Amino acid sequence: MELKEKTIGVLMGGLSPEREVSLTSGKAVLEAVKKKGLKGVGIDVDNNVASALIKNKIDLAFIALHGVYGEDGAIQGLLEYAKIPYTGPGILGSALAYDKVKSKEIFKLNNIPTADYQVFYRSQKKKPQCAFDLPVVVKPSNQGSSIGISIVREEKEWQPAMGLAFGYAEEVLVEKFIDGKLLAIGMNGEQAMPIVHIRPKSGFYDYEAKYTSGKTDYICPADLSPMETQRCQDIAAKVYQALRGSGMPRVDVILDSEGTPHVLEMNTIPGMTSTSLLPMAAKESGMEFEDLVIEILKSAQLDYSK
Questions:
Q1: Residue 196 CA to chain centroid, in angstroms?
Q2: Catalytic residue, candidates 14, 16, 18, 144
Q3: Which residue in 19, 25, 271, 276 is the catalytic one?
């Protein structure tokens, strides 16, 4: 794809709770596009995004949107109608990876290790009862950036955690807590990049730990044995295939004490901020931020999976 002839629209902001993070990602991407001598236009996505695409005569979309309407297949569908190639997976791949419950079902079908889980629905009249010994992780089925997530260690924390999660989604996922190393595996297509070990100083990788400088230590490449590294990268590649990955997503896993990587999720539009994990992994593999942006743009396509 000849990028110099294209008007690149960097889609950022959006309507989700992750709006501010998305704006930070988008601005960094737009700056990188311009540094590379390409024509970039920043689009703060709102309900009039279709008009903005037409007005700015966008040829190619870099999706820097996080959360609902950005990662779930919604904006991808709009771009399909407009015949504008875009970064990241297609409609189906985006939707599957964004829905934590559907992702879990696919992991189980493909024998991909993941924590045991329960699913609860807001419409259920019966009071939710946890089937696992504490601690457990309670999370909305369709949010990112650790929004609405709680670790329940005591019985008294169960109902508040469920209430918080239901405030963000109709479905709530409850996972058996797995103690281990939290790892992020960036993917360049089906090829795994250097692994990042995430060590939040608070012990919980929540929103503050993710986006506040100094709150988390990152080790890249992760201090793993060659066998552990290979196992994690192989699992990440399997997840990429099972969830119809495309471009440069990120697979998050917890490596337990026995050396088994349990998959949490695949993030189809990883953050592109100063504390983000994909740029960290890319730099370790010899790719500067601006080159990472170009690599992602080169992978842009329409969704041919339909």
A1: 15
A2: 18
A3: 271
Query: Among this protein's residues, is 145 annotated catalytic?
Result: yes
CB atoms within 10 A of CB 300: 23
Which listed residue (171, 211, 246, 303) is catalytic?
211
What is the C-alpha to C-alpha distance for residues 168 and 192, in angstroms, rounded to an integer?
32
Q: What is the mean pLDDT of residues 217-227?
A: 94
Q: Is pLDDT above 60 for 305?
A: no
pLDDT surpassing 70 at residue 207 = no
Question: In the annotation, is 18 catalytic?
Answer: yes
Are the beta carbons of 139 and 155 closer than 8 angstroms? no
Give pLDDT, residue 124.
84
Which of 206, 265, 276, 303 is flagged as catalytic? 265
pTM of the predicted structure, to 2 decimals = 0.91
236-276 tens-digit pLDDT? 999 999 999 999 999 999 999 999 999 999 999 999 976 78
